[in-house]
Design a protein that fits this description.
The chain has 302 residues and is mainly alpha-helical. It has 2 domains: 4-230, Serine Threonine Protein Phosphatase 5, Tetratricopeptide repeat, CATH 1.25.40.20; 244-302, Serine Threonine Protein Phosphatase 5, Tetratricopeptide repeat (Alpha Horseshoe). It has 17 helices and 2 strands. A two-stranded antiparallel ribbon has the order 1-2. Helix 16 (280-286) packs antiparallel against helix 17. The longest helix is centred in the N-terminal third of the chain and has 16 residues, at 53-68. It starts with a strand and ends with a helix.
Length: 302
Amino acid sequence: MPFSSSLNPHRPGLAAQPKQDAALSRNVSSYKEPGYEIEPLEVTEILPNCCEFDNQINLISEAYNLVYGVSTNLLGSTNLNKIETPVKNTVLHIAAWNGNNAIVNLVVEHAPKLLFTFNKNNDSALHVAARGGHIQTVKKLLASYANIERHDIKMAWLEYTNNLDDPKEYDEKSNMEDLLEFVKMKNVQGNTMLHEAMLCNKSNNISGDNIFEVCELYENEDCLGNSLAKCCYEYALEIVNHAKKSVLYLAVENGEEDVVQLILENCLNSNEAKPKGLSPVVAAILKRNQEMLNTILKNKPT
């Protein structure tokens, strides 16, 4: 069954999802898409020439009609907010996983609250876009999170952070403070979106430094002088997942010397900052990568 909806909470077959739930406990390194009941967007595989977002939305709407026996308009924000798969993936999760930017734009336009909705794996749309290697989708999503000129996105932030009492006080500094916290959000495996970008399948033909290039676009500072452009490199050193791996460690494991160099050269207070979790030096040794080891020791002798 492709879709469930909170509009039909008692529909038979939706209460027990052992296969999907078991998938949430899988190892970080083996995390793949089986948790997504439509993998990847079945309607576009069935009709590969049907690429316009209106048609894809209509096809998903038809699928919903087949499941529930009623017609629905997915462009209505109420429907978009309520439709979800058994593992709580929203339409935005599915679009982000597939890197379908037209659908992402459309969903954010009509249902910005989905930017702050998490699935059972505690993935935001940012997590799944990064996991899929869709850097342009990550870029579009970050732009949406930062677009507080849109009143509905601003209000979605205030609702998410429980600050609806003072909407007039919410400015670019407040937004950057919240965005930094959001980017640090961990899923069930303890991965941030930065971890997921580094863990994504290399068949996507992207390099790990792409995620940092996107983060560098956000130079606005919060009240403490922090920005995503600066802090993304700190996060790459300091935030570890449940496997005790930092983004830096994963970059070393992947043999991405350019990414390692980029992180070490740009992290704040480079003479003092030390990576948390498993040592990237050990990773370089285990991989027998002398050039990587030299890069690490040159930038971080300790």
